[in-house]
Amino acid sequence: MLLITSAFFAFIIAIIAGLGRLAKSRWIRWTTNIYVEFFRGTSLVVQLFWVYYALPMLAKAIPFLPPLNLSSFWAGVIAVSLNYGAYVSETVRSCILAVDRGQHEAAIALNMTRFQRMRLVILPQAVRMMLPDFGNNLIQMLKSTSLVSLIGLTDITYAGMVFRNSNIDLGILVFAMMLVFYFLIALPLIWLTRRAERAVSKGMAS
Amino acid sequence: MIWDWNIVKDVFPLIFRAMWLTLGLTLACYAVSLVLGIIWTLLRRAPWAWFRWTVNGVLEFIRSTPPLVQLYFLFYAWPLVPHVGVTLSPIAAAIIGLGVHYSTYTSEVYRSGIDAVDKGQWEAALALNFSRARTWTKVILPQAIPPIIPMLGNYLIIMFKEIPTTASIGVMGMMLTAKMYGAQHWVYLEPFTIVAFFFLLLSYPSSLFVQWLEKKMNRRFDKNEVLHEAKQKGVVV
Amino acid sequence: MTRPMVSYKNVRKSFGQIEVLKGVNLEIGEGEKVALIGPSGSGKTTLIRMLMTLEQPTSGVIEVDGTPLWHMEVNKKLVPANEKHLRNVRKNIGMVFQHFNLFPHMTVLENCTVAPIHVLGLSKKEARERAVEMLEKVKLGDKLDVYPSQLSGGQKQRVAMARALVMRPKVMLFDEVTSALDPELVGEVLEVIRELAHEGKMTMILVTHEMEFARDVADRIVFLDNGYIVEEGPPEQIFEYSSNERLKRFLSRFRLHSVYPLTTRSV
User: Fold this and answer.
1) How many other C-beta atoms can be found within 10 angstroms of the C-beta atom of residue A91?
2) Contact status of C101 with chain A (Cβ, < 8 Å)
3) What distance in Å separates the CA atoms of residue B149 and residue B127, rounded to the nearest whole number?
4) Does B232 contact C at CB distance below 8 Å?
5) Is the pLDDT reported for residue B121 higher than 60?
6) pLDDT reading at C17 higher than 80
């Protein structure tokens, strides 16, 4: 659940930030760059704790804001999606740049507006190139969701830890099961990513 | 007052001291992953298909499960395993756990470097009647290593950012130091912000360095790039 | 000459330190067919790319049908054009590229309808009718639902032409449209251009290395070398009677290396 919600927000953020970094206005480019570098430069665990512990304190200190009560779920979603949004925006940016210049030129020759060129010609091609990397990031994100157990959210890891604490002698089994569980969720993602990779490389060849 | 400089003064030295542990741990994990990565790469080139399959399966498994859970496994469950199980200190568990996890990535990097060497190079070495060892040391590796250096540098940075995970098994790195201070004094904003600041301070310059390295390597290995750029700009028609 | 459709007034273009065009003056009348020839790097492609607004001139003025392309008039002064002005002038111009630049994620029909629908605002039905008509004209009426990757180079280039033609531009630019094609596919593409030329209404500017073809189709040949227009005139004058040394040297080299004899001349 956390994975799906965060992935959803992460990809939206990534596309916006990816476009932002290519924007004409220097102002927009700079803001998105700072966002991306900040979230790529600091660790996800740190961000998670910062959002969960420090952010509510910051909000409390600002007088006009209503008290910010972040559940651990939303703290997790915010941290994970902002973090991965920053990483994936790099993919978005490079894939947009990787679309052949001739495609831009043909679209200009057909007198499309900037917006139309992006929407009708560039993005549909760029998204195809992005798919394998989206898949890889989804697997990374799956692994990262285990970190939210550290701020007390009941995910697979947290549940496993709770179970272990009441059945100490089953320790090996519990941890092995947890690993297998994550692997089982990852398997279809791995498979899809491989397929996307093959599809893209085939598309390039033709 | 939102931001209390007194707390900063109080907690900064603590976190600064913990930084050395975090850095040392990063290097230790990195060394493990680099060496282990080579071993994996060699195993994956073994002549028996079933063996390669097994190795690949194991690597895929390690790669796609969370390092946090792997750390838990090493720290809590490993001592319970009959015969081979030993109790690991948090730091040892961290080094082994993250080292093994990232070795699956470095092995992938090595492989991509070797695969990227043109097939013609192998054939040329064969035509010159080079021995196997000579082919590797004189022809393949000199071409395979330079392009992967930036990639390996990237993994060093990624690993550095993964170290806070080890706080979960009690390694007193920057993260746990900040958290414990926070729990004692019930202030979290300053300690965590300082930790974030340290991470940014250390990893951003390194990532710039890696980018620079990457550009330099690309230029060295693709001299046509300049010409290509000129063509794209329309200078050369 | 009829009224000028395109005119270059002292146009210069530099890329960094290199000056590719060193002051070009050229006027092209409505319905005229002009072929630009010259050695590689002489600036002929840059000349038409500026007309398509893909490249901005460093100085000078380009006019299309009496309107400045890269400038607009504000309070009787010429200022650099904004996107709106560019789009407004650009609608008169179409271009066919050396490397086709078809949209790989769209079928042949979609390639030809996307701009009519989104840029001209035609209904899907109208756009389709127009596109089918043009695709039949380039003899690809049976390939409507095929993707570009399944076509030969010659077919791709004909689709690209149909795609430009559905916009009904007043001026069509052809940028070395046969240079990327296998020799045996050149004929089918040139044939289509020739038919277009013989219809007569459209202004056409061709950058080409096909000398025989240029001679056959063009009303006027413009020879560029080293950033200048060195010689211009009707084909006969250029190919037979010119006394310009550089032009003669260029043409003689071409005769020696000419790969394409005139095999597709119609009538």
Assistant:
1) 20
2) yes
3) 29
4) no
5) yes
6) yes
The 3-state DSSP class for residue C95 equals strand
Question: Which of B192, B206, B232 to probe by mutation at the A interface, max A CB count within 10 Å?
Answer: B192
Closest CB to A111 among C54, C101, C167:
C167
Q: Report which secondary-structure segment, H or E, holds C205.
A: strand C203-207
**Whole-number pLDDT of residue B217:** 74
pLDDT tens by residue, C72-85: 877 777 788 888 88
Tell me which of 3.20.20.10, 1.10.3720.10, 1.10.443.10, 3.10.20.30 is the CATH number of domain A2-205: 1.10.3720.10
The residues, ordered by sequence, that sit 6+ positions from A63 with a Cβ below 8 Å of its Cβ are none
CB B177 within 8 A of CB B114: no
From chain B, pick out residues whose CB is under 8 angstroms from the CB of C46.
234, 237
* CATH number of B5-233, picked from 3.30.10.20, 3.40.30.10, 3.20.20.70, 1.10.3720.10: 1.10.3720.10
Which helix (H) or strand (E) is C79 found in, with range? Answer: strand C77-80
* Sheet order of strands, C18-29 included: C18-29, C4-15, C59-64, C67-68
C39-64 burial, b if ≥16 CB within 10 A, otherwise e? bebbbbbbbbbbbbbbbebeebebbb
> pLDDT for A45-80, tens place per residue?
888 878 887 777 776 666 665 656 667 788 888 888
The mean pLDDT of A82-93, rounded to a whole number, is: 88
Antiparallel, parallel or unpaired: β C71-74 and C67-68: unpaired
Would you state the structure tokens that stand for residue A84, as one six-digit string? 């991965």
- In three-state secondary structure terms, C151 is coil
pLDDT in tens, C134-180: 999 999 989 999 999 999 999 999 999 999 999 999 999 999 988 88
Q: Give the pLDDT confidence score for residue B223 in this predicted structure.
A: 42
Residue C22: which of C201, C228, C203, C237 has the closest Cα? C228
